[in-house]
Specification:
Elements lengths: L13 E10 L3 E11 L3 E6 L6 H8 L7 E6 L2 E3 L4 H6 L2 E4 L11 H6 L13 H14 L18 H14 L4 E5 L7 H16 L3 E6 L2 H7 L2 E6 L2 E7 L5 H9 L5 E2 L1
Parallel strand pairs: 3-8, 3-9, 6-7, 7-8, 10-11
Antiparallel strand pairs: 1-2, 1-4, 4-5, 9-10
Helix pairs in contact: 5-6
């Protein structure tokens, strides 16, 4: 008998129930969307532009509040009034612009808002640089980053992604929401980035890959949640679907599929 615990038997790291969101009372961006993500799992949150993906991410990450619906973290109801509340629950969002300050160096970006201070409020610059470089070398390996003093504006798209992920890893985040993370990456950087997501999964993280690029999602995701016109029309495991099936779901030529 196989005693391996299935997702259905585990408590999701994050679960959103009945999420509905209206903009200006007359624009419904999401309608009764259920969504869950487990540890050691990559979920592909996919759909065309305007499907509601970004709105759902903003709600999960505490940026906006849903009109209706509830969010649970590890089985306990959560009330996110801000992104800081979500971060305190171990949820970090890496947006398309990566939330980096390009005029600052790598170390400053990793510690921004969470700097370490010593006596008299003086910053522990040497310690922060040492710790920043350690995590870049051990957890987020990528070519070209030689020093935590490098200015972010001079980094490539893949290197910037590494800095954003390093920030989440350094502060022990358990869940990463990645909103269109490959949109500014080269082919080589995209390949390296997707492989890195698989490594983060092995380390026990819960990852949500938000993208309209089905090919990128299909390479790494264990499961897919498909949104169309603000509704979730499919929740299906990778082994139970194909790229063609997912494409048909997104464009509307295939009936909804809920696993």
């Amino acid at each position: 008998m196989d005693n391996k615990e299935t997702n259905e038997e585990r408590i999701p790291y994050l679960e959103a129930k009945g999420i509905t969101h209206d903009y200006n009372r007359n624009i419904r961006a999401l309608e009764k969307v259920d969504f869950k993500a487990y540890t050691n799992e990559i979920v592909g949150l996919i759909g065309d532009n305007g499907a509601g993906k970004s709105t759902l991410v903003k709600i999960i990450s505490g940026v906006i509040n849903p009109t209706y619906g509830e969010i649970y973290v590890k089985g306990e109801k959560a009330n996110f009034k801000s992104s800081k509340d979500a971060m305190n629950k171990g949820i970090e969002t890496i947006a398309q612009d990566m939330n980096l300050i390009e005029t600052m160096d790598i170390m400053r970006n990793i510690y921004c808002g969470r700097e370490e201070c010593g006596n008299f409020g003086l910053l522990k610059l040497n310690e922060m640089r040492k710790h920043a470089m350690k995590i870049l070398e051990e957890k987020v390996t990528i070519e070209g980053i030689r020093s935590p003093k490098q200015i972010v504006a001079n980094l490539s798209g893949g290197q910037k992604q590494s800095v954003a992920i390093a920030r989440a890893m350094f502060f022990k985040k358990k869940m990463l929401l990645l909103d269109e993370p490959t949109s500014a990456l080269s082919v080589r950087e995209t390949h390296a980035f997707l492989n890195h997501l698989l490594e983060l999964k092995k380390q026990g993280m819960s990852l949500v890959l938000v993208t309209h690029n089905i090919f990128h999602a299909y390479k790494v995701a264990d499961r897919f949640a498909v949104l169309r016109h603000g509704k979730k029309i499919a929740d299906v495991k990778k082994e139970d679907t194909t790229i063609d099936d997912l494409t048909e779901l997104i464009v509307g030529s295939k009936l909804s599929l809920d696993a």
